[in-house]
Amino acid sequence: MPCLAHTLQLTLKDAIKHPNADVLISRARKLVHAVRKSSVANEAIIKKCGKTLVRDCSTRWNSTLDMLRRLLEIRTELNQVLEELGMDTLLTSDWAKIENLVKLLDPFAIHTDQLQGDSQSLSHVVPCLLNLEAHLLTTTAAGKQLAQVLLKSLQERFAAILSPDFPHFDATPAAACLLDPSVSLILQTPDMVPLRRAAQSLVETLATQYNPATAPQAVTATQNAVDSPPTVLQKYRFLASRMEVNVSLTNQPDGTDSLLTEMKKYVDDIKQSVFNETPLQFWRSKEAVYPKLAPVALDLVSAPASQAFVERIFSVCGLLSSGLRNRTTTSLEQRVFLKINKKLLID
Questions:
Q1: DSSP character string of 181-201
Q2: Residue 164, exposed/middle/buried by CB under 10 A (0-12, 13-18, 19+)?
């Protein structure tokens, strides 16, 4: 399974290369270049608002988003300076298009940061992707064409995670989502039946490996109406607004030792409870209640959402040990620790 954060970045690059976005970003980039090149204009903007324009980097799509955000943030001061210096600014229509583009891309930036965090579980991959899909489906006419390009790219690049019929489908992220009590309800909706069944099948296979005596049995489902989205899912606001029905497991075989009985009890529990603990804390405290399910769940929710954080550590180690800072006497371990935790130390 490829790095999910990198795959999401490729999805965004597909959209940014679209003519509608490419022309707009090129205009914004030229304006930023002209202002940054002029020391007079740059200093005047800093005096007015204490900030300057941000250049983007071709290898990082979120730097382009940062550039557009800063343009919108200091738009008034920027236009005043450009008018005073007789320099050209963007058209009113271009400013409106930038606003729409930023609104379209903002959720992608949020979920990219979420997926590449060092403490993010694999269980949040499916909710993030489904939330982005719901966001694109509800995009207004202003950004509809670009949203459709993004949606097509998202569905194609993540078919191996979201589409059980895909030849190279991997149910691991869906199984992790199913066994994370904070997001499991996402898979209990009618449109998630194929993905949920694939996740349950993988969980049964893994549980059989842990407990050879466990035999998979048939599962049926019934629909129970829900008045509003569960509070625990409000962080996925686009997805939560679409949730209307939860699906519960019924007609399970008797016997408290059955894996499917444990699964039914688990689904019932997550519908009726509010969780203030992490998935790991939940399953460690429930090992006696779910003796067959808990070992599988602990393995799945312990897996990271992506390899991005590990790659970042290797990158920092390479930079710090390359000889560029050969006068530094502290150990490599301490330097990497300080670099990776810079935000926490500053806060």
A1: TTTGGGGGSGGGHHHHHHHHH
A2: middle
| CB-count burial class (<10 Å; 0-12, 13-18, 19+) for 167 | exposed
Dihedral (CA of 94, 98, 99, 103) sign: positive
- Separation CA 162–CA 85 (nearest Å): 53
Sign of CA dihedral 117, 122, 127, 128: positive
Task: Tell me the per-residue pLDDT of 60-74, one tens digit each, with 9 for 90 and over.
Answer: 788 899 999 999 999
Angle, helix 75-85 to helix 39-49, in steps of 10 degrees = 140
Residue 334's H or E segment, with its range, is: helix 332-340
- Rounded to an integer, the average pLDDT of 197-206 is 92
Mean pLDDT of 121-137: 91
Question: Tokens standing for 151?
Answer: 């949606």
Query: Does the CA dihedral 173-175-181-187 come out positive or negative?
Result: positive
Whole-angstrom distance, CA of residue 123 vs CA of residue 181: 10
- What are the start-end ranges of the E strands in the chain? 220-225, 245-250
CA–CA gap between residue 231 and residue 237 (Å, rounded):
10
What DSSP string describes 75-134?
HHHHHHHHHHHT-----HHHHHHHHHHHHHHHHHHHHHHHHTSTT-BGGGHHHHHHHHHH
**CA–CA dist 1, 220 (Å, integer):** 30
Distance (Å, whole) CA 112 – CA 93: 29
Closest by CA to 193, choosing from 157, 156, 221, is 221
- 8 A C-beta contact, residue 6 and residue 12: no
The more confident residue out of 224 and 308 is 308
At 318-334, the pLDDT tens digits run 666 666 655 555 576 77
Tell me which residue of 239, 247, 296 sits closest to 111, measured CA to CA.
Answer: 239
Q: How many CA atoms lie within 13 A of 46 on its CB side?
A: 10
Q: CB within 8 A of 187, min separation 6: which ones?
A: 126, 174, 177, 178, 195, 196, 199
Distance of CA 215 to the CA centre of its chain: 35
